[in-house]
Amino acid sequence: MSQAVGKTALAYARVWHIVDANERILGRMATRIATTLMGKHKPIYDPAADCGDYVVVINAKSVKVTGRKAQQKMYRHHTGYPGGLKEIPFERMIERKPDEVIRKAVSGMLPKNRLRDVRLKRLLIFPDEKHPYAANIVKRYNEKV
């Protein structure tokens, strides 16, 4: 009897992962999350197929950056009005919207195609330890990257 899973429903089943962002480096953590959202860790990975898993990130407000990025990194967006370029420093962004910091980092590491938004919907970010998906979690990232 063959042990191969093949391209069956079992192979495409989505697993829930939890990542504790406490004292983790933003960029290194975001690459691991992007890989999991794409499904590159599975043997059936296909760039055109959406076979990635769910990722729940907790303690988003305590994520770290290296060097002087905490003072120098800027998040920019435009309001659409003349002169409407807004710049928000990392320190203020991590206080007000810690989930956006991680979401933007992961979004920049995903391929720029039609599947990007679909994959980002499977990224669930919470600023502290409490989250409603405790029953779904199957895998936990414990190692510091």
Poorly predicted segments: none
Tell me roughly what share of residues is in helical segments: 25-40%
Q: Give the class-level CATH name of one domain.
A: Alpha Beta
Distance between the termini: 39 Å
Spatial shape: globular
CATH topology call of one domain: Ribosomal Protein L13p, Chain: A
Q: What share of residues are in beta strands?
A: 15-25%
Mean pLDDT: 91
Specify the CATH architecture of one domain: Alpha-Beta Complex
Order of helices and strands: HEHEHEEHHHEE
Rg is 17 Å
Q: Which class of secondary structure composition applies to the elements?
A: alpha/beta
Question: How many individual helices?
Answer: 6
Assign the CATH superfamily of one domain.
Ribosomal protein L13
GO cellular component, one term: mitochondrial large ribosomal subunit
Pfam families: Ribosomal_L13
InterPro entries: Ribosomal_uL13 (IPR005822), Ribosomal_uL13_bac-type (IPR005823), Ribosomal_uL13_sf (IPR036899)
Keywords: Ribonucleoprotein, Ribosomal protein
Would you kindly provide a written description of the structure presented here, covering whatever features stand out?
The protein has 145 residues and is α/β, with parallel strands linked by helices. It has a domain at 12-65 and 97-141: Ribosomal protein L13 (Ribosomal Protein L13p, Chain: A, Alpha-Beta Complex). The chain is built from 6 helices and 6 strands, in the order αβαβαββαααββ. The protein has helices at 9-12, 26-38, 69-72, 90-96, 98-109, 115-120; strands at residues 16-20, 54-58, 74-78, 85-89, 123-125, 139-141. Strands 5-2-1-6 form a 4-stranded parallel sheet, covered by helices on one side. A two-stranded antiparallel ribbon has the order 3-4. Strand 1 (16-20), helix 2 and strand 2 (54-58) form a beta-alpha-beta unit. The longest helix has 13 residues, at 26-38. The radius of gyration is 17 Å and the shape is globular. The mean pLDDT is 91. Pfam families: Ribosomal_L13. One of its GO terms (biological process) is translation. GO terms for molecular function: mRNA binding; structural constituent of ribosome. Keywords: Ribonucleoprotein, Ribosomal protein. This is 50S ribosomal protein L13.
